[in-house]
Fold this protein.
Amino acid sequence: GESVGLHLPTLSVQEGDNSIINCAYSNSASDYFIWYKQESGKGPQFIIDIRSNMDKRQGQRVTVLLNKTVKHLSLQIAATQPGDSAVYFCAENGNRDDKIIFGKGTRLHILP
Amino acid sequence: DAGVTQSPTHLIKTRGQQVTLRCSPKSGHDTVSWYQQALGQGPQFIFQYYEEEERQRGNFPDRFSGHQFPNYSSELNVNALLLGDSALYLCASSLWGGQGTYGYTFGSGTRLTVV
């Protein structure tokens, strides 16, 4: 069936260090993946996406890696800042006009 | 450019009652999707509306219904409320067949508490 899950529910990172948030998916037919950031009291905010024909995509301070062999997705945040504190969700969308399936989320804590 | 607007922001209802939540999509968007997010969980897809019709539906009972108006705004209705319906209800708008998920923009949600 369809499912997108996360390895760790909480991640604590020292300010200035790099953060890595992992995600596993089970639908081998998935061809499009998105990372969202959700701050308290707000809706999910788009961070970065990647299609299944790519292994890596970079944005501003963020990088998404896709390993289709083991059905694993990761989000790397460089030089983590206090403003990065939030819950991060990986999500899957098999068709760009289709529904988005979310995982449970990882809460990122930034240590001073 | 206004983003996705949801109302009300908070709502308290009694078990068995009915509730209507409202969503105005981002300017230029024509598709609205609704999600339910329980505390500590990821959002779960309820349904999606385009051209005033329900295009897709998730695993939610018929107590959950919706509507889309000619101006693309949308309503989510929940009948016979249960305690388990307490959640954050998110609306997302997008452009059908255009920007795809790049255009997928979420509102801040309506926090529904059923007592």
Q: What stands out?
A: Chain A has a mean pLDDT of 87. The first strand of chain A starts at residue 4 and ends at 6. Chain A touches chain B at residues 4, 32, 34, 41-46, 49, 89, 91, 93, 96-105 (CB under 8 Å).
